[in-house]
TrEMBL record:
Keywords: Signal. It comes from Catellatospora bangladeshensis. This is C4-dicarboxylate ABC transporter substrate-binding protein. Residues 1-19 form the signal peptide. Gene3D superfamilies: Periplasmic binding protein-like II. InterPro entries: TRAP_TAXI (IPR011852). It comes from the Bacteria.
Amino acid sequence: MVRRRVFPAAALAVAVLLGVGGCTEPTPEPVRLSIATGSQTGVYYVFGKAYAAIVERELPYVETNVLITTASAQNVELVGDGRAQLGFTQADILPSTGNKVMAVARVYDDLLHLVTRADGPVRDLADLKGRRVSVGAPGSGTAITANRLLDVAELAGDRVEVHQLGLDASAAALRKGEIDAFFFSGGPPVRAVEQLVADLPIRLVELGGWTDALRVRYSEVYVSRDVPYSVYGLDPISTVADPNYLVVPAGMDEDLVFELTRMLMEHRDELGVAHPAAGRMNPQSAIATAPLPLHPGAARYYQSIKP
């Protein structure tokens, strides 16, 4: 059974959330819904743009605003203080976020990429010692995961020359020979890595053997996942993976979150055209959002589609 779309009610919920609606009637003016994503060549941004188009199509009173950010940590901050109404985040930053945000869905798993030149000296994690390495931009999920990995590998502190660059800047620095390697956590294929493969011989470094150490010291959210040859045309590896969530403010209107969750799940195929990682969502895995609880509106949606 297809649920009837309640456009005015959802629009009114957004208006109330943002403080621009009337007391009893939905505003006739468009209402803006900001989505915090990440770098323009990262998965969050591509996913967010495609999702925003669906929301605008199905909720005609809504105008979306896709924010370019440093990703996870900044996104949670933006959603938590009301500057954004939706945001993407890695699961490993969430134990410190308090109760300001709640989950809409587990959307896919981020895979930690350690990218280096194919003709360079970095062949395993230990080879980073004494090298110039970008760990991601401050406020990004990449930076959190990468620094934790360096810690468990006893490469923290002055053992590595750390650069704090975003994805695009990291790729540019590797091209110019300004760094020896960079980390990026994202759902494959990552566009910036694909672009590197097209014009620079690179390789991905095996990291899967460090998953257990990360789980013991930091969080049980970490798992190992494979990056097969078919993704980038590079030698297959195993690496550390981290679940990825779409989050909203804890106080967001329940009916609105129901509608946002419905659109996310009902349009998985369309989102998957934008990026394969988005197409891997399903209701069974979407509800696994520990340590973050599902928003009541999202929980009600998943309950409504149970057989």
